Amino acid sequence: MPIEAYNDKVVLVSPENPDTKVSVLLYGATVTSWTIEGKQQLWLSSAAKLDGTKPVRGGIPLVFPVFGKSKADGFADLPQHGFARNSTWEFLGQTKENPPTAQFALSPEQANKDFYSKWDNGTNDFTLLLTIQLSPDSLTTTIEVSNTDSKSWKFNWLFHTYLAVNDIDDTLVNNLPGETCYDQLLAETYEEKAPAIDFNGELDRIYKNVSCDKLLQVIELGKVVHNIERHNLPDVVVWNPWTEKSAGMADFEPKTGFHKMVCIEPGHVHDFVTLEPGESWTASQVIKKGDAIKLQAI
Ligand SMILES: O=P(O)(O)OC[C@H]1O[C@H](O)[C@H](O)[C@@H](O)[C@@H]1O
């Protein structure tokens, strides 16, 4: 049984191993769980709301049409990270038996009305098509954004991926030295000098225009635990809320949970993508297993 559809979620199960599966909540089309042979790959807060009252804290929330808050015309009144993560998507069906693949869609008809109306006064016609593919050792999430309007409009996209780690104290992220970084906590732009990113306090950085040829790796005690490939997603947000920020988030539990996660968020957020009428834009993230450490210079 490669796919199980419920009222509120869809589960893809690997034909190779019943304990390799991915669960997608229709609310936000949020991946809330992904296991490989029973081992959880993503972090999900034990206090995450899965009932549509709040975006999911954990898994892979989808960020569209704005990352964070923006003062730009047409975006200023939108909630943080837009409305895709607070809208209930439509399950279109299974598009491939093996590897199990499913598609989900969002258009103005299904979008959260209160929030959608805040994007250019709710005048932008669009379609989002999300494809989720489960392979024995990887998960691919692909987004196609289409302009079905008679005028152009612009957007940000980002996969807000919460990766599971064993202990953030032992975790490094590689292949970012030399990249331009906007530190959201310092409100400063600088060149990353550290040979690898380590974590010893709150960290919230946007690495801009990182070549998609660069693989990003999450490494714990010298072992690669996640490889992140990006296609058409030039920016990478790295986030860990640490103690104080976690304490301030009601849906972040347990409060020590920041030890168990790191957000590596591939996106296009350094500027807006402009789509002309009839145009589409496609991008994807692939999270995969693989032991070899790959170091790539700038
Ligand atoms: O609390 P949320 O709206 O889900 O945002 C969670 C986080 O998302 C991104 O990682 C941003 O860079 C952070 O500044 C923000 O705190």
Amount of beta strand: 35-45%
Average pLDDT reading: 98
User: Helicity, in percent?
Assistant: under 10%
Secondary structure tally: strands: 22
Distance between the termini: 44 Å
CATH architecture: Distorted Sandwich
> What kind of sheet is the major sheet?
9 strands, antiparallel
User: In the CATH hierarchy, what is the class?
Assistant: Mainly Beta
Low-confidence stretches: none
Q: What name is given to the CATH topology?
A: Beta-galactosidase, Chain A, domain 5
Function: Catalyzes the interconversion between the alpha and beta anomers from at least three hexose 6-phosphate sugars (Glc6P, Gal6P, and Man6P).
Keywords: Isomerase
Family: Belongs to the glucose-6-phosphate 1-epimerase family.
Catalytic activity: alpha-D-glucose 6-phosphate = beta-D-glucose 6-phosphate
Describe this structure in words.
This protein has helices at residues 113-116, 242-247, and strands spanning 3-5, 9-13, 21-25, 30-36, 39-40, 62-63, 90-96, 101-106, 126-135, 138-147, 153-159, 161-164, 171-173, 180-183, 188-191, 197-198, 203-208, 216-220, 223-231, 235-240, 261-275, 280-288. The chain is mainly beta. The chain has a single domain (3-288), classed as Distorted Sandwich (Beta-galactosidase, Chain A, domain 5), CATH 2.70.98.10. Strands 7-8-9-10-22-19-18-13-16 form a nine-stranded antiparallel sheet, with no helix packed on it. Strands 6, 11, 12, 14, 15, 17, 20 and 21 form an eight-stranded antiparallel sheet that branches. The protein is globular. It starts with a strand and ends in a 10-residue tail after the last strand. The model has no long low-confidence stretch (mean pLDDT 98). 6-O-phosphono-alpha-D-glucopyranose binds at residues 68, 80-81, 184, 204, 237, 239, 263, 265. This is Glucose-6-phosphate 1-epimerase. One of its GO terms (cellular component) is cytoplasm. The active site is at 160, 265. It holds the Pfam family Aldose_epim. Keywords: Isomerase.
